Amino acid sequence: MEALAAQKRSTIVVQGSRPSGEIMTVGEWMDRWLEKYAKPSIKLSTYCSYEMYIRVHVKPQLGNSYMNTLTVDELQDFFLERGQHGNQKGDGGLAPKTLTNIRNMLHLSFDQAVKNKVMAENPIEGVRLPKMRKVEMRVLSRNEQGRLMDAAKRVPEPAAFGIIFDLFTGLRIGELCGLRWENVDMDKRVFRVCETRNRLPNFDDSIRASTSVKTVKSTKTDNSLRTVYMMSSLFEDFQYYHDVQMAIMEENPGYNREGYVFCQENGEPYEPRTYQDLFKRCVRQAGIADANFHSLRHTFATRALEQGMDVVTLSRILGHANPSITLDKYGHALDDHKRESMERLDTLYDAAAPTAATQTQEEDAPSASFSLHMKF
After folding, report:
1. Among residues 312, 315, 305, which one has the least CA distance to residue 335?
2. pLDDT digits (tens, 9 = 90+) for 136-155
3. Residues 6 or more apart whose Cβ sits within 8 Å of residue 299
């Protein structure tokens, strides 16, 4: 009755407007929005995340509320409760990043609901979330980087070269596992990042497993679709690795049928979790603590800035949406570069300061009292 009354009020207040849309619960709308509006335009991994957010968090808490009576207070209470008790694996709440992801999803969904006349306005606009804390990144020291490269060369699996490769290209682990030879141009020493390999929830009823590993054509964002050039030293080792792979494939028909650059010794593709195991073994052998695979990406970015690469170029290599993300993440690495750049202004400072001779000539000039030389 409250939902009907709200619908009637909205029709009366906005004279001459189209009648408001059908009355729906939040649960009904979210299911419709996910399949009809979101699914055609988002990646499979994003769809899986949205489906989980709706099933596990939104519908149990808000599913029976009506869209046209939903208030800012109800949504604020929802986020406060999820922030305290939303953790499905134990005590505690959802991380600020997860809360932000859910808010962004609801924002998109409710915007569409407003266009469909299911809501008069988007109440998510008034919700306030806790500020996300910056997580300190683990960057390998130059000594640790050298030890890890040595360890990767010593293990029996040829694909461990991918660890070295990643230290000098900064790929995400899904991008590394999804890289195929068809996307590598050996003549131009370049490869195209256009696929990612991940374990995702399974929505195929004919498959009993709850998850399955898939390689999908799109990567994290549109900017993640990118071309990366290999430096000469890395390419020499990559060329040798390529020749070995091609020789194995020629001698063993059926080996590495899908053409992945970094495959297991039996020719089957790696999934990120399996490649993580190989990485952890190399890390242990190198005597390195508290480093995960993403540390390779952080290390690449930090070394690149230390060597003088500009932020815009690095942003494009990493596949960030814009350079401000790169600067926010890795600005700390620019401290030495900033100090050196400021020191270069020394010669300009000395040249601009008036000498004793010019000071005598300018004693009667009105602006002399304001000169930098006179102040000091």
Report:
1. 305
2. 788 999 999 999 999 999 99
3. 139, 140, 145, 167
C-alpha distances in Å from residue 251, one per residue of 238, 268, 350 = 20, 16, 69
Distance (Å, rounded) from C-alpha 162 to C-alpha 171? 10
Q: Convert the pLDDT of each residue in 89-147 to its tens digit.
A: 878 899 899 999 999 999 999 999 999 999 999 999 999 998 767 667 889 999 999 99
- What does the block give as tokens for 293? 């695979």
Q: Read off the tokens for 40.
A: 């055609």
Name the nearest CA neighbour of 21 among 36, 32, 11: 11
